[in-house]
């Protein structure tokens, strides 16, 4: 009976060479071993398969019926092993039709995504980028099941499991914006003024909605939220025509000021900077296409990170 524990890969290679050469000496030369070593391997093969495999005839060695029947299955095993062990195929972004699914908030869509799409369109015109809203309760499972490729968000909000891979992209902090000619609000206001002014809240901006509310709650304070909108789209234009304050990440505020007649207002509390990160499952760490996409996001983020948070102080 065949015992797989006694049949190793070297024996299969030797069998293939013996069947090609029908000569122990030539097969040994091709395998860079001695004739004696090849003879020993042939003897082991005969024991394993319970068959002579090669027999001497007046015209040289000939394979038995059993050996001939084994030849293609053995070569199939060798081909599969070669395919398994060889390096993964190179990823070519110029010709790839890969589809990537990213989980990110409005912040990611507003600040990072346009730059990323521009870069990807130039380097990989056939690649698709799909963006979904992050669902904190199932992000880990969605990464593991490859339903999404990457998570992009603020580390303080994501609470990433320790086994996930992640990298810091850049940081951001909370500031306020108000309409430029809002006479009652200077470039820096007190906490009392901040709490008295009517404010607009972007419910999808976790850095604003959760971090600011958490800080105020710890102090036993509450701000006056007069308007709540679901995303960034209308927020700066609404603030530009009203007496509302809007607390939001500084990098978004900078972009808003360029679009509307708005001004920056320092928040009256010392919130730290918060890291914006990219996370992925270790299963995809060595995937060439995945590595390429992560590098594009890193390149875009390096451009964003060139603007330090303290430049407007």
Explained architecture:
The protein is an alpha/beta fold. It has three domains: 4-85, Orthogonal Bundle (Arc Repressor Mutant, subunit A), CATH 1.10.10.10; 99-170 and 278-312, Periplasmic binding protein-like II (D-Maltodextrin-Binding Protein, domain 2, 3-Layer(aba) Sandwich), CATH 3.40.190; 174-265, D-Maltodextrin-Binding Protein, domain 2 (3-Layer(aba) Sandwich). The protein is built from 13 helices and twelve strands. The protein has helices at 9-21, 24-30, 35-49, 65-85, 106-111, 113-123, 139-144, 155-158, 191-196, 206-218, 235-239, 250-259, 288-305, and strands at 54-57, 60-63, 99-104, 128-132, 150-154, 165-172, 174-179, 198-202, 224-229, 245-249, 262-265, 274-280. A five-stranded mixed β-sheet has the order 4-3-5-12-6. The longest helix is centred in the first third of the chain and has 21 residues, at 65-85. It starts with 8 loop residues before the first helix and ends in an 8-residue tail after the last helix. The relative contact order is 0.13. The mean pLDDT is 87.
Discrete helix count: 13
The structural class is alpha/beta
Number of structural domains: 3
Strand portion, in percent? 15-25%
Q: Can you identify the CATH superfamily of the largest domain? A: Periplasmic binding protein-like II
Residue stretches low in confidence (pLDDT < 50, at least 5 long) are none
The ordered H/E elements are: HHHEEHEHHEHEHEEHEHEHEHEEH
The major β-sheet equals: 5 strands, mixed
- What is the name of the CATH topology of the largest domain? D-Maltodextrin-Binding Protein, domain 2
CATH class of the largest domain equals: Alpha Beta
Rg result = 33 Å
Q: N-to-C terminal Cα separation, in Å?
A: 81 Å
Q: How many β-strand stretches? A: 12
CATH architecture of the largest domain: 3-Layer(aba) Sandwich
Specify the helix fraction band: 40-55%
Q: Give the rounded overall mean pLDDT.
A: 87
Across the major sheet, the strand order is 4-3-5-12-6
